[in-house]
């Protein structure tokens, strides 16, 4: 028997709810994700300038690439990537054929060719095979878009205009990159090292929430340049406060480290005198 109860009527009432605190919904956007394609097969059709740009993104993400393009259609940069990354790129020197998409291991397909009819045929074939596809410069035939990316070590920032203005995306990306605090990339690396050390002393899954809260306090309490300059010794001193949920400030950590270093030096000297 099918229930006629309205599912919305089952939602509990929240007496202290304040909808004004919730972020507004702006329809028409894209779901921006960091797509993990490491060691996954990606088909790239075309070898021109746009394909060269796509290769930079894919190689930086450690993808396994199959590039399909006649030798006469290769851009110099594309040819260079084929020669220098042969372990990552499988080159097929001919035009695209439908059988190229029959491999079950394909994760996504990119086209970068100056042939609208052929591009649409590839798009249609991908849809029939449930393969995510991006047709360069044709937003309606894209399941996902490439944005303008700023890369600095582990830091990646993407600016997307939803396919409306690639040039503007690049200009905005440069402005965002120029506004980043000094030492941002180095700070991210050091925070990553601190997280690994924290997991070493608090490995249990049940402590996940506590680890996240403590790491958040560290990031909020320390400046970017201070985080970037953290040493392993600083991290050890900092981690001493984890159990009690305490985050020592930069100056306190440095002072404690300096005092301990002096004590160790005194002990070493005393040992040398004793040996003498």
UniProtKB/TrEMBL annotation:
The record's InterPro entries line, in alphabetical order, gives:
Met8-like (IPR028161), Met8_C (IPR028162), NAD(P)-bd_dom_sf (IPR036291), Sirohaem_synthase_central (IPR028281), Sirohaem_synthase_N (IPR006367)
Its UniProt pathway annotation is: Porphyrin-containing compound metabolism; siroheme biosynthesis; sirohydrochlorin from precorrin-2: step 1/1
Enumerate the Gene Ontology biological process terms: siroheme biosynthetic process
**The keyword Cytoplasm appears for this protein:** no
Task: Please indicate if the UniProt record lists Ligase as a keyword.
Answer: no
Domain Siroheme synthase central: residue ranges: 152-178
The protein's annotated catalytic reaction(s) are:
precorrin-2 + NAD(+) = sirohydrochlorin + NADH + 2 H(+)
Which Gene Ontology molecular function entries are recorded, alphabetically? ferrochelatase activity; precorrin-2 dehydrogenase activity
Q: Which UniProt keywords apply?
A: NAD, Oxidoreductase, Porphyrin biosynthesis
Q: Domain Siroheme biosynthesis protein Met8 C-terminal spans what residues? A: 181-247
Listed Pfam families: NAD_binding_7, Sirohm_synth_C, Sirohm_synth_M
Q: What class of enzyme is it?
A: oxidoreductase
Question: What EC numbers are recorded for this enzyme?
Answer: 1.3.1.76
Q: What is this protein called?
A: precorrin-2 dehydrogenase
Lineage of the organism: Eukaryota, Fungi, Dikarya, Ascomycota, Pezizomycotina
């Amino acid at each position: 028997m099918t229930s006629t109860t309205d599912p919305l009527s089952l939602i509990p009432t929240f007496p202290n709810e304040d909808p004004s605190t919730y972020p507004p919904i702006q329809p028409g956007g894209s779901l921006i994700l960091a797509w993990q394609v490491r060691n996954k097969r990606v088909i790239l059709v075309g070898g021109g300038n746009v394909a060269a740009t796509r290769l930079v993104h894919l190689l930086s993400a450690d993808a396994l690439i199959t590039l399909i393009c006649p030798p006469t259609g290769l851009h110099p940069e594309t040819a260079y990537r084929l020669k220098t990354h042969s372990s990552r790129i499988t080159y097929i020197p001919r035009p695209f054929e439908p059988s190229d998409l029959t491999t079950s291991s394909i994760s996504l397909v990119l086209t970068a060719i100056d042939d609208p009819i052929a591009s649409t045929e590839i798009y249609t074939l991908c849809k029939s095979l449930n393969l995510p596809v991006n047709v360069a410069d044709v937003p309606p035939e894209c399941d996902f878009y490439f944005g303008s990316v700023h890369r600095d070590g582990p830091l990646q920032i993407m600016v997307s205009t939803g396919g409306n203005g690639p040039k503007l995306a690049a200009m905005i990306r440069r402005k965002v990159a120029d506004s980043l605090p000094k030492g941002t990339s180095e700070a991210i690396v050091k925070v990553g090292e601190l997280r690994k050390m924290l997991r070493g002393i608090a490995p249990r899954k049940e402590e996940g929430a506590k680890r996240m809260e403590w790491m958040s306090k560290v990031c909020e309490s320390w400046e970017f340049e201070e985080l970037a300059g953290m040493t392993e010794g600083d991290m050890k001193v900092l981690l001493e406060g984890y159990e009690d949920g305490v985050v020592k400030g930069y100056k306190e950590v440095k002072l404690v480290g300096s005092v301990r270093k002096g004590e160790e030096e005194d002990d070493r000297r005393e040992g040398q005198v004793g040996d003498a």
